[in-house]
Amino acid sequence: MNKLIIKVVFMVVFMVGLTSYMTYVQTGKSPFDFSNMSAPDISLNADSIKGLLPSGGGAESGKDVFYKWVDDDGLTQYTQVPPPEHIKAEVIALDPNMNVIQGVKPKARVETAKKKRQIGQMDGSVYSPGNMKRLMDDAKNVEKVLNDRAEQQKQMLDGL
């Protein structure tokens, strides 16, 4: 079954290639010539889309209109639809391309003259004489702990 599918696919590819070659021989043009293709003109001007743009509802054109009002329960509401007629509302028009959240400047860092040393933190270069001595002492302490543990394990095994 698989061989049949492979043969059919091969024959279809062969026939497409043969017909495109024969078309080229007879007409001098390839049936798959895309050199003179161009994209359609889809440019829009303001007059052609004027009816598609939302009306500003009395506000400036191009701005989003919001209504701020207080409901009967005393809660402040922000909506894009006008509130009921008996409620007084503030109309807010915002430009959608404008940032309404003001930037916050970060507070300057206060550097303390004396920092607490954290575990594993070294002053200055790792290769300074004081740091190298501390590294060697730490390595000797680790070696001592490992040797003590190995000795304890050896004693436990000897006791069995």
User: How are helices and strands ordered from N to C?
Assistant: HHEEEH
Average pLDDT level: 78
In percent terms, what proportion of residues is strand? 5-15%
Instruction: Extract low-pLDDT stretches.
Output: none
Question: Strand arrangement, largest sheet?
Answer: 2-1-3
- How many extended strands? 3
Give the C-alpha Rg: 40 Å
Amino-to-carboxy terminus distance: 70 Å
Shape: flat
How is the biggest beta sheet arranged? 3 strands, antiparallel
Count of DSSP-assigned helices: 3
Fraction of residues in helix: 25-40%
Q: Which secondary-structure class do the elements indicate?
A: alpha+beta
Describe what you observe in this structure.
The chain has 160 residues and is α+β, with helices and mostly antiparallel strands. Among the domains are: 1-28; 61-100, no CATH class. It is built from 3 helices and 3 strands, in the order ααβββα. The chain has helices at residues 2-27, 46-49, 129-158, and strands at 64-70, 76-79, 89-94. Strands 2-1-3 form a 3-stranded antiparallel beta sheet, with no helix packed on it. Strand 1 and strand 2 form a beta hairpin. The longest helix is centred in the last third of the chain and has 30 residues, at 129-158. The protein starts with a helix and ends with a helix. The mean pLDDT is 78.
